[in-house]
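Re: your question from the hallway

Yes, I did run it. Sequences:
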Amino acid sequence: MEKIFIHPESLYDVPTHYCPGCGHGIVHRLIAEVVDELGIREKTIGVAPVGCAVVAYDYWKFDCSEAAHGRALAVATGIKRVRPKNIVFTYQGDGDLAAIGTAETIHAANRGENLTVIFINNAVYGMTGGQMAPTTLLGQKTSTSVEGREKEKHGYPLKISEMLASLPGVYYIERVSLQSPLEVLKAKRAIKQAFENQINNLGFSLVEVLSPCPTYWGQTPKEALDWIRLVMQKEFPLGKIK
Amino acid sequence: MSNKKILISGNEAIAQGAIGAGCNFYAGYPITPQNEIIAYMAKHMVNSGGVFIQAESELAAINMVYGASAAGARSMTSSSSPGISLKQEGISYIAGSQLPAVIVNIMRGGPGLGNIAPAQSDYFQATRGGGHGDYYLIVLAPGSVQEAYDLTQTSFDLADKYRIPVMILGDGILGQMMEPVRLSTKINKVSHQKSWALSGCLGRKPNIVKSFFLREGALEEFNISLQKNYEIIRKKEARYEGLFLSDAKVILVAYGTMARIAKSAISQLRSIGKKIGLIRPISLWPFPQAPFNVKNKKLKYLVIEMSSGQMVEDVRLAVCGRQQIEFLGRSGGGVPSEEEIINKIKKIL
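Structure:
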């Protein structure tokens, strides 16, 4: 009988450390499937972030580098410039990409580095215990916005994808979501597009993934997916931004 | 070596030394008094087939170097004191990930924004790792423009040999002054093939470059292996220049620009029969212990620095209470003069 569902070669067959209902495992797998389908496993170099996905290299079966918090795109720039024939991507959370690493993000994008960025937006700092992120929604309660995010005190959720889209060096930006199987399939298509762009030397490509964090949203996995659909997607609309 | 000499500044000599050593990746951010390095690299890296990037910050520059070194390149960045403070995060990660890299610090006055005058006040930062964690850099301190050129080449070799970041520690005078330099004619053809480097896992298991060890006991195990590497470096890579050590009654201890002024003072005093010697540490880490291992209790040391007294602490550790140690230093851009040194020596003698 023909197997129609197989384990991707680019993903080690090991349990992950992620919480039940977390989106990281899904996106790790989507990246692994895309890398396999494009036949680039042996020339891919991933840059893992600081955050919940800090040990992503324990799950992906290709070369990987660590990066200091926020510096993934500087590290990736160094790797890609030295090895332009390799496929280099960063995997970064919202704190990493849109708070501490904002300068590295904007300038790598503005230089038009031929890189692929997978940006996990779950509106919260997960690894450190659920603090307010740059993308935390107004009214969202976190351990550092205990009454909910207030625009007067904390400013607004940062829409870094829209900001980056204004830069001429950026080739492709799309926002996707993990809230349903259909949206996961669309997310995979966008991730594949972002890798293909790099293979075709088209420049800086970023996919923002709205990803559930039931643990620090104080929700069940099902509630977290509903919250993405009903609340988060209103603030961060899905679709191709550039 | 060719016989041809060219007249260049210390900063340019470091840049040319890097290119001669096969440096194929440079990222930097402008800061005085080292701007000749970034300008020289911008102009010449492309011709030598390397990559030049003007980064958006020192943070970005050092992390680009992290990436380039992880990918197997011979990588360098340069800055001056306030910029080196910013780079410390990346330097710690480079040390923790066992990556080779060359970092140039052309020191200026501090703390804070300080000034742009020459100084030697980053000695503590350079020789004690500088960032967070249990690590060292190899630190080399050139005393002339020729040596700046030569030691830059050495730095790349040491960085690769021991998989360690190497710092070239100069000051604003050394960076700016011009001297004739004899250039090496052979350009290193550097192979990117380092077995641990990231190149894509074609035909091998995936390589991972990281400094993260979460499992209980794993980081301690790793840090012990780092210390073993440091122990080998301490034994093999201590460098110094000694002058008139056999008959000296007072030995001056100075490095970099300060050692040049000390030498002028010594030749004046020697011409009137005063027995003065010099120890010039060339490697500041590892600090050269051997020349201080003497029993003569009447011998005195005079440590001279463009700081309020930093290297003097290493001299105290090396001398270990056997002899008297005096200190002469000026800070905030002040440079002890030949006259000040001679007056101080006359008081000690």
